[in-house]
Hints:
Blueprint: H1 3-7, H2 18-33, E1 37-38, H3 40-47, H4 51-60, E2 67-70, E3 73-77, H5 78-86, H6 105-119
Amino acid sequence: MSFEQTVIVGKKPQAANDTSVQELGRIADEMALAERLVDMKMAMEITTLSRRTLLDMEERGEFPERVQVTPGRTAWLLSEIVSWINNIPRRSHYDVCDAPANPSESLIQKVARARRQIDAGKFRFLG
Length: 127
């Protein structure tokens, strides 16, 4: 939906304002199509990853590659970071491990305590 469609809802603007509304609509549509550059600090904030992790992942090809903005400045394209975030698997292999065949009594107690805490609502994101 364009800016003009958003602004003009239900009633038609005055004839004198038609050109100004159309001009504002054109500018807003151009701004929506513009790409945003993201520096290291902003990329760290957006992804919640450390500087070293971002650089390592970029080197391994697991994160988008930076673009050269000026001879001394590089940045990422925001759309590529957003695309990368949207393509992160919802469940990774990091949280899956084999259960031991004969768990010790202390491990059984730790698992039971963690389950009680989860059931009690102590940890919102587990379970």
